[in-house]
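Design job #97: recover the sequence.
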């Protein structure tokens, strides 16, 4: 690299280094002032030594020796210090990313891939036919689905302080022309850092599912409520301007979802009450926001009827506003909006039982009174502050609620049309437009709550229901064909299996109650409130029909009239998870569509069938490369089934934060799908600390959401696979590689005696299960089997120990064996790497994982294994495969640096290395103490803090 190039890159990253240095200095000052010089000096010595380790000036053992035997009272502030260093470094990197993007745009450079601007350019160059585009993106949907995650345990207070520091740092870089301004901003930042230091980073009690619901919903107030509707409006306008003769995107393309409160697979704490709580809290967020926005609109749209005419529709709305005709008599928009606000409050009261207490000071009238506002002077019509909106307010009680979100939109559309008719489009395009887009996107439900349960549970419950009803005494004894015939017949009959006095076991009672609670949610908030029912570990047609029968018993599936078809408001979604189930998934779906009653259910939903693909269990089952190829093959087969059967296929990608669970850059992942695998719509899960990294800040949220849409549009409308006639030979090559990779992975994970014991002793997996992290148990069943361990603790434990095994193991062996020293075979793979997004993405994600791994640190964790021979055998296999995989990556890509294609990530890892080192070393030290018998609460808390700090540092640990 030339000296000029090095100098340019150093100049570009100097603001980031300055920010990290400044924030680190402020935190250091805070620690010295409030923890004392002894603690500060140790932290500073450890930090300096960690930097020396990074520069390879001292051995890795230097930091470990400094922390050996450190008193727990000193260890806790040390762990907190490095955790906060990392948190502040993340904050600085987010600011730098926005800074670089602004510089890029200001320089007039072409838009970067993954941005919508770049996508629009590609679409323009392709000169696509509008009618064809309309067909390809009919029923378009991009849905990020938020799920709970055990490493995301930070409190809302911490997020709030982070947000304030971020805002202050942005202002500091813009408004520090004088010494006085610099001093003022520094003082404000110091106050926030002190607040951060004095605030507990994590909760001490086990995270309840109610807490997880609240954690998921906070992102709406942080970013999503503003960002999602704005992107929806932008994309719709951009596409319609390109194809003006076609009504594209009649519905918003971005519509979010959630699993928190509806996913009961392995989580005994999800109950009927929790389902209702999740839906009501989400709706409360939506109603509260609408009411606040209506208050602001009522204050701002002060046009006088003496100066501006209004349409007849607005005149009618104005007449339904304030009961006292003298109140704002010549301000029709204020009167109309007051009436709308009353009706929204009445709608909230009907749906929730209360009106969200979200009114804003300074509203134009007190809704609880329903009459003229009053002030201290007693002047009629004067502005009176409103601090709350009691659900018992006479005006709210008397107001007519809105039956649907569309009815509310109709009223707001009337105001919009009136403003535009009088030439006030500037006003219509501001706050009113934002509110209209929000209601169109979020409705009254805010987000779709998916239901999920394991197929084994469905089988048990259905067997009990059938036995109780006298339909069949031993459902479990039936063959698959017999089960399908029986279930299909039951789905046709209007007779319920349960009467009001049915006596069921605990499990069946709970499951039926949950589905009935979901029905109540649908009746209250509409069909989009519970859009999908997902069947985990789906392996057969009967698994799908059992879920359908449970939905029928709960009142969500209507068998129809005697001569009419059945219908179900909830989509039945099979989840194929293991490699074998992925391979058989297309055949299972085709067989289900051959069952007339099931096909009629799909037909009633416009022939739309969603299928979920499990990245986590397939990876745990067969390793990184085998799982990725099994998913690709499954998609190819499902696309073919869709073509033959005439269904519109939507794929739901169950991706985690780490590469071992399907993580990586979402845009690249979407482009890496096979032809026909997107079809204008996709859903994908978002989890844990990845949610915070993507959605806690408006700029990051906008970037990540637009990248999802950009990838979806490009994958749907353009040819991105790039293989052409080489497709089938390339697929066969990958079949071979995947088989070899799976064999290598299985030799370690499934065939090496003592592997499970090694895993449990060399990682914090046992502590993940024992400590108060998350509401969900770490295992599906109380066994020591890898297959029963949930994917999150499996991946998270390897990540914490810096092995990152699920994201690479087996790939190096497969590549080395297939190439076999043949330069032609190596050239074939190198060519595919350049041309095929799938292989390029697989190797790029693998490189990211390898770059975050650290086998010197992993060796410290391996020392926790009691059996020295087992330790040497298994860690030796891991070490050899790690080196082999790095060699193969370099040979195929032609890059000796793992992150040559991702310099920003390389810089990020380089910057945070000194903070990772002490956290890992301290975690090993505390694990050793805990396992030696020191089970004090402080030691356990220290381990939990290191887990949280490492998850924050790695940014995608589980």
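Job complete. Output follows.
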């Amino acid at each position: 690299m030339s000296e000029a190039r090095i100098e340019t890159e150093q100049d570009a990253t100097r603001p980031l280094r300055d920010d990290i240095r400044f924030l680190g200095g402020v935190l250091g000052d805070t620690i010295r002032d409030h923890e004392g010089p002894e603690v500060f000096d140790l932290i500073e010595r450890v930090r300096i030594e960690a930097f020396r380790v990074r520069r390879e000036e001292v051995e890795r053992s230097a930091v470990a020796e400094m922390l050996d035997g450190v008193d727990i009272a000193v260890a806790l502030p040390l762990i907190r210090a490095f955790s906060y260093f990392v948190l502040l470094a993340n904050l600085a990197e987010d600011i730098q990313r926005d800074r670089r993007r602004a510089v890029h745009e200001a320089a007039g450079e072409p838009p970067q891939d993954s941005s919508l601007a770049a996508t629009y350019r590609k679409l323009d160059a392709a000169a696509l036919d509008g009618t064809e585009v309309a067909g390809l993106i009919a029923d378009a949907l991009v849905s990020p689905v938020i799920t709970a995650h055990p490493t995301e345990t930070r409190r809302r207070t911490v997020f709030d302080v982070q947000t304030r520091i971020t805002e202050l740092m942005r202002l500091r870089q813009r408004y520090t022309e004088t010494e006085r301004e610099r001093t003022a901003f520094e003082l404000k930042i110091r106050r926030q850092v002190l607040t951060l230091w004095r605030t507990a980073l994590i909760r001490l009690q086990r995270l309840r599912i109610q807490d997880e619901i609240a954690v998921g919903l906070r992102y709406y107030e942080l970013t999503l409520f503003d960002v999602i509707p704005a992107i929806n409006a932008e994309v719709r306008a951009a596409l319609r301007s390109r194809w003006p003769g076609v009504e594209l995107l009649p519905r918003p393309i971005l519509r979010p979802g959630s699993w928190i409160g509806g996913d009961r697979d392995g989580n005994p704490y999800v109950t009927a009450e929790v389902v209702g709580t999740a839906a009501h809290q989400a709706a409360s967020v939506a109603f509260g926001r609408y009411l606040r926005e209506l208050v602001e609109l009522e204050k701002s749209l002060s046009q006088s009827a003496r100066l501006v005419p209004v349409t007849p529709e607005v005149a009618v709305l104005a007449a339904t506003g304030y009961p006292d005709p003298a109140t704002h008599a010549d301000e029709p928009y204020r009167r109309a909006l007051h009436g709308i606000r009353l009706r929204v409050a009445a709608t909230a009261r009907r749906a929730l039982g209360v009106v969200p207490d979200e009114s804003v000071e300074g509203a134009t009238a007190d809704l609880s009174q329903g009459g003229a506002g009053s002030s201290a002077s007693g002047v009629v019509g004067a502005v009176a502050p409103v601090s709350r909106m009691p659900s018992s307010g006479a005006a709210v009680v008397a107001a007519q609620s809105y039956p649907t979100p569309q009815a509310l939109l109709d009223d707001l559309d009337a105001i919009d049309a009136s403003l535009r008719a009088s030439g006030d489009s500037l006003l219509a395009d501001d706050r009113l437009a934002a509110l209209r887009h929000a209601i169109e996107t979020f409705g009254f439900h805010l987000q779709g709550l998916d239901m999920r349960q394991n197929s084994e549970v469905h089988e048990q419950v259905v067997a009990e229901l059938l036995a109780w009803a006298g339909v069949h005494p031993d459902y479990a004894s039936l063959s698959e064909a017999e089960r399908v015939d029986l279930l299909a017949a039951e789905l046709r009959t209007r007779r319920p299996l349960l009467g009001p006095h049915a006596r069921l076991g605990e499990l069946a009672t709970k499951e039926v109650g949950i589905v009935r609670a979901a029905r109540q949610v649908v009746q209250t908030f509409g069909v989009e409130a519970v859009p999908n029912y997902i069947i985990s570990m789906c392996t057969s047609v009967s698994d799908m029909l059992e879920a359908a029968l449970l939905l029928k018993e709960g009142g969500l599936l209507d068998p129809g009239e005697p001569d009419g078809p059945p219908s179900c408001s909830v989509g039945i979604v099979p989840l194929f998870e293991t490699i074998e189930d992925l391979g058989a998934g297309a055949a299972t779906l085709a067989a289900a569509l051959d069952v007339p009653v099931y096909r009629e259910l799909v037909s009633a939903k416009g022939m739309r069938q969603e299928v979920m693909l499990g990245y986590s269990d397939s990876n745990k089952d067969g390793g990184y490369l085998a799982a990725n190829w099994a998913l690709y093959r499954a998609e190819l087969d499902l696309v073919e089934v869709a073509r033959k059967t005439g269904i519109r296929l939507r794929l739901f990608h169950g991706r985690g934060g780490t590469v071992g669970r399907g993580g990586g850059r979402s845009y690249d992942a979407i482009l890496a799908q096979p032809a026909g695998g997107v079809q204008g719509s996709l859903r994908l899960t978002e989890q844990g600390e990845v949610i915070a990294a993507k959605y806690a800040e408006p700029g990051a949220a906008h970037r990540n959401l637009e990248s999802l849409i950009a990838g979806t549009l490009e994958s749907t409308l353009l040819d991105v696979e790039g293989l052409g006639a080489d497709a089938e030979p390339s697929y066969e090559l990958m079949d071979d590689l995947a088989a070899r990779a799976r064999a290598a992975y299985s030799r370690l994970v499934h065939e090496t005696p003592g592997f499970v014991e090694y895993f449990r002793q060399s990682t914090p997996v046992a502590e993940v299960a024992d400590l108060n992290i998350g509401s969900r148990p770490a295992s599906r069943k109380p066994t020591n089997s890898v297959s029963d361990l949930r994917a999150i603790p499996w991946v998270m434990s390897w990540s914490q120990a810096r092995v990152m095994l699920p994201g690479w193991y087996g790939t190096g062996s497969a590549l080395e064996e297939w190439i076999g020293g043949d330069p032609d075979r190596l050239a074939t793979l190198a060519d595919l790497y350049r041309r095929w997004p799938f292989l390029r993405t697989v190797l790029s994600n693998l490189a990211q994982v390898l770059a975050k791994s650290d086998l010197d640190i992993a060796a410290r964790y391996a020392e926790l294994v009691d059996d020295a021979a087992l330790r040497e055998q298994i860690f030796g296999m891991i070490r050899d495969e790690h080196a082999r995989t790095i060699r193969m990556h370099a040979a195929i890509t032609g890059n000796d640096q793992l992150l040559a294609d991702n310099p920003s990530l390389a810089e990020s890892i380089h910057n945070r290395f000194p903070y990772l080192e002490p956290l890992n070393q301290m975690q090993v030290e505390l694990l050793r103490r805990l396992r030696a018998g020191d089970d004090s609460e402080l030691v356990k808390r220290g381990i939990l803090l290191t887990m949280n700090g490492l998850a924050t540092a790695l940014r995608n640990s589980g």
